[in-house]
Write the structure tokens for this entry.
Amino acid sequence: MPEDKIKHPSSADDSNLFSQLMGDVTPLKTNKINLENQKAKPKPIRQRFPAVAKSVHTLDFFSDQIDSDEALFFARPGLQHKLLRQFKRGALTIEDSLDLHGLNKVQAQQLLEVFLIQQCERQHRCFIVIHGKGIGSSSKQPVLKNLVFSQLKNDTRVLAFCSAQQRDGGTGAVYVLLKKATLHGIDDQ
């Protein structure tokens, strides 16, 4: 059929068709879109300390030299650079979280030990520990931050830890990377 013989639909036909198709649709109340993705804050884990926690020994080394805004970093030798970069950027999947706010030193140490055991049992590799900055402590020193630093550094199950990205708590929290458990019960990276 020649080009001049083709009948093109009129704009009135288009408008009628559009009205028929959109007849059941109700308009939105606002045309504004909330682009801010708000991440839910982790809820603190409140639990009684099981019998396992009684076996926790006092740390041989406890640092009180870490300041509130100081970034923490520790890594055992042999960690792949690419994995370490992803870990520091917060790009690894965080499988769980522990919030130590409001606990004293003994409670926090016990709960962290129990939490580490649970993460190993669940074969979780990466999680976050929220220790706070210590601004509200009576000594005005970050007691829990120093405790977490010492306890994680002295734990052979821990491959690395570093202060979290700002979106996850900044210097008031740490990402923790555990060793992989093999089928034979031997730890490796």
Summary: The longest strand covers residues 158-163. Helices lie at 11-21, 81-89, 105-121, 143-153. The two ends are 72 Å apart (CA to CA).
